[in-house]
């Protein structure tokens, strides 16, 4: 899924995404179906794609917490759910398997193919390795 496809999906789902200047964070999502992203803090297309997918993951899975939530288990669970939603849409397992069979074996090659950051690619590889077993 490309960045523009993520924006189109958000529109179809009724999720509003706004560029919003923030002092301390780069993005946030809200249960009302709203995502804020400070594009002045975004480095490039791949980072924006990862951020938008992750924030849509919070909205679509209903995995929210407040800044005052002190329970780390709750925070981690919400972040994991948002990451999993994003991974499934930006790095489909069958496409990952095909890319690896075609010779893309480094994290950097795979990240470039999927148009995501290397950190996001590592998360996807670990997710599939733990959950579904990649070859």
Supply the key terms:
135 residues; 58% helix; 6 helices; mainly alpha
Architecture overview:
The structure is a single chain. β2 and β3 form a beta hairpin. The protein has 135 residues and is mostly helical. The model has no long low-confidence stretch (mean pLDDT 93). The two termini are 22 Å apart. It has 6 helices and 3 strands, in the order αβββααααα. α5 packs across α6. It has a 3-stranded mixed sheet, covered by helices on one side. 58% of the residues lie in helices and 9% in strands. The longest helix has 19 residues.
Uncertain runs are none
Sequence of secondary-structure elements = HEEEHHHHH
Beta content comes to: 5-15%
pLDDT averaged over residues: 93
Rg, Å, rounded: 15 Å
Range of helix content: 55-70%
SSE class:
mainly alpha
DSSP strand count: 3
Oligomer: single chain
Main sheet record = 3 strands, mixed
Can you list the strand order of the major beta sheet?
A: 1-3-2
User: What would the principal axes of the Cα set say about the shape?
Assistant: globular
Count of helix runs: 6
Outline the secondary-structure elements.
Blueprint: H1 3-13, E1 16-19, E2 27-30, E3 34-37, H2 45-61, H3 72-90, H4 93-101, H5 107-114, H6 118-131
Parallel strand pairs: 1-3
Antiparallel strand pairs: 2-3
Helix pairs in contact: 1-2, 2-3, 3-6, 5-6
Summarize the structure.
This protein is mainly alpha-helical and 135 residues long. The protein has helices at residues 3-13, 45-61, 72-90, 93-101, 107-114, 118-131; strands at residues 16-19, 27-30, 34-37. Helix 2 (45-61) packs across helix 3, helix 3 crosses helix 6 (118-131) and helix 5 (107-114) crosses helix 6 (118-131).
């Amino acid at each position: 899924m490309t960045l523009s496809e993520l924006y189109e999906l958000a529109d179809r789902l009724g999720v509003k995404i706004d560029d919003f200047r923030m002092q301390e964070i780069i993005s946030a999502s809200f249960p009302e179906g709203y995502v804020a992203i400070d594009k002045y803090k975004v480095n490039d297309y791949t980072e924006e794609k990862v951020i938008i997918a992750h924030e849509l993951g919070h909205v679509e899975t209903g995995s929210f917490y407040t800044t005052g939530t002190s329970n780390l288990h709750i925070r981690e669970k919400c972040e994991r759910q948002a990451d999993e939603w994003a991974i499934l849409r930006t790095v489909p397992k069958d496409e990952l398997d095909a890319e690896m069979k075609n010779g893309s074996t480094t994290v950097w090659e795979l990240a470039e193919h999927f148009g995501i950051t290397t950190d996001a690619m590592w998360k996807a590889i670990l997710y599939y390795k733990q959950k579904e077993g990649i070859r």
